[in-house]
Specification:
The structure is a single chain. The protein is mainly alpha-helical. The chain has one domain. The protein has six helices and no strands.
């Protein structure tokens, strides 16, 4: 439902659903984590489209919720999810530059355990 609402550019409902998902914290159970891989992969892809089109600003409230509070905890659900999150972060860095992207990219880089060069963005 979240992906459907995001695809329809319904950010109000998307925010409510993402908040409910975050608050449920179902993914804290290791055995449940792989179930979220397809969702996390698709979420990262949609968010990258939003960044490229200018509909999502890194560091915004929606960014913090969708990326930092929902997507990053799911990054270890699958290798492909990890790759998509990296692609999202690269897209952000290219679009807005290191100075503006610094804080959100640095925060994500630390959570992804990326090399220090990335964390210095």
């Amino acid at each position: 439902m979240i992906l459907e609402r995001l695809s329809s550019a319904d950010l109000v409902t998307s925010r409510l659903l993402l908040t409910a998902l975050r608050d449920a914290q179902h993914w804290t159970f290791k055995q449940a984590l792989p179930e979220y891989a397809p969702f996390a992969y698709s979420l990262a892809d949609l968010l990258e489209d939003y960044v490229r089109s200018g509909r999502l600003a890194p560091g915004s409230g929606f960014w913090r919720l969708a990326v930092e509070e929902v997507l990053l905890p799911l990054v270890d659900s699958d290798g492909q999810v990890h790759s998509e999150v990296l692609r999202l972060l690269l897209s952000v860095a290219k679009k807005v530059g290191a100075q503006v992207a610094g804080s959100p990219v640095r925060s994500a880089a630390v959570q992804l355990r990326l090399p220090a060069a990335w964390q210095g963005c």
